[in-house]
UniProtKB/TrEMBL annotation:
Residue ranges with Low complexity bias: 310-323
Spans annotated as Disordered: 295-334
Name the record gives this protein: Agglutinin receptor
UniProt source species: Microbacterium sp. LWS13-1.2
Organism superkingdom: Bacteria
Compositional bias of kind Pro residues: 324-334
Keyword terms, alphabetized: Membrane, Transmembrane, Transmembrane helix
Chain segments annotated as transmembrane: 30-52, 58-78, 90-111, 123-144, 156-176, 188-214
Length: 334
């Protein structure tokens, strides 16, 4: 038996990805065909209205119809290009909203005018219809993102009811804008609109509140702070910041290995004082306290007698070369 190739791509994952891409492309193709059919249907309805309707302002309406069809074709092409970067349901819903706007726009263009001065108001009403449809799409998209954070039976029920209420509210607002010129709406209609708006707002606020209270929080990345090293003697304040893993070097001293060297104004040791024995102008001089050893008193040396000559004095030799102090120690190499 041969061992499986560790670098081979799993076949089920490829089949699943290909299936998802195929379903997305088929849905997008179906949406495009629906848009083409709606475009043809709107054009046929407009042609029939031209042939069978009245002759009032037929040229202006035909021009508006051409603009409407061209605008819908451009929006459909734009949605087709943006569909790969969107969820499948959002691409279909967006195309459906533009189809509804196309059909309502064609009806509003060729619908007889009850009052001659309401031509411009129809254009404003059509823009409001398009705005309502796009706001519903955005609401549903962001609302579903909030719902997916904490999916429970309660939030799922609230989400379904809220989306239904939002769609119903959009339909209740669009009907007066499109056909309010020929419809006489009773007072109960607007009461229903207000009640649906309140319930839709309540459902919209419930899911984010549940997420804040019960949804799992995202873990925050904790930054590990390195412990601060204890200050080194005579140079911790002026020494530059070093990594936490590197220890600070001790402050250099004179030849006696006890008295620290003076510190220059820039924080560096006064190496000139090491050779000359005198601090440079402006250097800060430290004082070192040497431990005092308690020793027993020794007897003073006996004075030489005249019969005993004094011992010759031993020459004092300073450490270093020809009386000069030795060079300072080199820092340790890593």
């Amino acid at each position: 038996m041969t061992a499986p190739d560790p670098y081979a791509t799993p076949a089920p994952a490829m089949d699943q990805a290909a299936h998802a891409d195929g379903s997305r492309s088929s849905l997008l193709r179906a949406a495009i065909w629906v848009a083409i059919g709606a475009l043809i249907a709107a054009a046929v309805v407009c042609v029939l209205w031209v042939l069978l309707g009245s002759q009032n302002d037929i040229i202006g309406r035909a021009f508006l119809t051409i603009l409407l069809l061209v605008g819908f074709a451009g929006v459909a092409i734009l949605d087709a290009h943006l569909a790969p970067t969107r969820p499948a349901w959002f691409a279909l819903a967006s195309m459906g909203s533009w189809i509804v706007a196309l059909l309502l726009g064609a009806i509003m263009i060729w619908m007889p005018e009850r009052y001659p001065w309401l031509g411009f108001s129809r254009f404003i009403q059509f823009l409001l219809i398009v705005l309502i449809l796009q706001l519903v799409l955005l609401h549903v998209r962001f609302y579903l993102k909030a719902f997916q954070r904490y999916d429970t039976p309660f939030t799922r029920t609230v989400a379904v009811i809220t989306i239904s209420l939002v769609v119903a509210l959009a339909a209740l607002l669009i009907i007066p804008l499109a056909f309010g010129e020929w419809l006489l709406l009773a007072d109960i209609y607007w009461r229903i609109v207000v009640a649906v708006a309140i319930l839709a707002a309540l459902g919209t606020a419930l899911v984010p509140l549940v997420n804040v209270l019960f949804a799992p929080k995202k873990p925050h990345a904790h930054v590990a702070h390195a412990p601060l090293a204890p200050p080194a003697p005579y140079g911790a304040l002026a020494a530059p910041a070093a990594p936490a893993a590197q220890e600070l070097l001790p402050w250099p001293t004179y030849v006696d290995a006890v008295t620290p060297l003076p510190m220059l104004p820039d924080g560096s040791p006064d190496w000139n004082a090491y050779y000359t024995g005198y601090p440079s102008p402006g250097a800060h001089v430290f004082t070192a306290i040497e431990p005092v050893a308690h020793a027993e008193p020794q007897a003073a040396p006996a004075a030489p007698t005249p019969s005993q000559p004094a011992a010759p004095a031993q020459p004092t030799t300073a450490p270093g070369y020809e009386g000069y102090p030795p060079p300072p120690p080199l820092p340790p190499r890593a």
